[in-house]
Amino acid sequence: MQKQWYEIKGGKRLEGTVTISGAKNAAVAIIPAAVLAGETCILENLPHIQDVQSLKEILEELGVSVEYTDGDCMQIDSRTLRTTKALSEAVSSMRASYYLLGALLARYGEAEVALPGGCVIGARPIDQHIKGMRALGATVECDVEQNIVRAYADKLVGAEIYFDVVSVGATINVMLAACMAEGVTVLSNVAKEPHVVDVANFLNMMGATVKGAGTDVIRITGRPKLHGCGYAIIPDQIETGTFMIAAAATMGDVVIKNVIPTHMEAVSAKLMESGARVIEGDDGRDFYIRVVMNDRPRAINVKTLPYPGFPTDLQQPIMAYLCASNGISTINETIFENRFNHVRELRRMGASISVKDSYAKVKGIPSLRGADINASDLRAGASLMVAGLAARGTTNVHNIEFIDRGYEYIDAKLNALGAEVTRKEK
Ligand code: UD1
Description:
single chain, four-stranded mixed beta sheet, 31% helix
């Protein structure tokens, strides 16, 4: 396969209007959740990203009929499902495949799913997903060597489940498993992220009874059958934040449309603290956020936390922004270990960053300089895009397949704002 990268001619002030796509993290849960319905579901506002394409192919491998009907609309009909074994390479290459476990278990009483290496016992465990499904009466077996998880149950029965860590994935997965269980399930210490609420709303549209999503406790009354529905996915909180940060990092003036401003409060607060103007508005059709920045950012401290705290997925982009801050900023990553792979690449652009445990100290310099750098994951990729846009000179961001997983037409969207980003290949 040919290698592709983004060449960014940096230092251009971003100006204009950009429209945010549907939320990746909601889409990757809602697409598998659609198999819960014994009928057709039509999903709208899906982002054109690789993760959505991969899930389409994975569902098709299971025999599910999945078709794009109109641009960003997808029709999913699981009546033709042939197997509950999702073991292909496409499945194991995508972490969000774990949602197939909850959805298939709920609807068919069995599921076998290949997971990315190291996930069951590694740095991103799924013990809380498994704990929840076991509490509902499922037998869950992990083949650690092959990274396959198998779950089955004659019937699932509602239970009270307290999560030991606040986990987006476990909250959604157990919610999926519980919505067709007999009786009532109460999930405590759950994640409150916007996409948790979006999945709950989708389940309710299918006839499920899920209450309390967005608070610490979710109560689910199981229903024997769910039906098809149409559903429009919320705008992407992380894409919104990435554009807000990119606008500030280039001392730009950008109106970001199709957003939900309340989802952005932590990000808006931090950008304002750093000296940006963040204006929320409603143009009669869409909510928007306008970010205006005229100066180098002031140094700030950022700590990642579960929602409504500052999202870990924007820790990497905001670090790129703070590289040019006026003073010393600190970043405390409390959600994931080792989420500092972008630091080495930012240093190649001249950044002065030291890391100790979960803390990064960023000593601001007047500006980054262009370099050849490598994305190590999706949000690291977003961070390097922000860095390249703000830097003097030309930056080549490699390994952009990570960025394609989660950002729709990022080059075109940035170029419409005055950036010079070219997708190159060799
Ligand atoms: C989701 C998001 C990801 C985001 C993350 C945190 C999707 C598809 N991905 O990932 O973009 O960065 O939330 O907002 O929505 N943990 C356990 N045991 C478990 C599950 C998680 O210990 O069973 C730990 C993790 O190691 C991590 C923390 O809980 O330290 C949060 O992880 P979690 O919220 O589950 O992240 P994901 O759902 O994988």
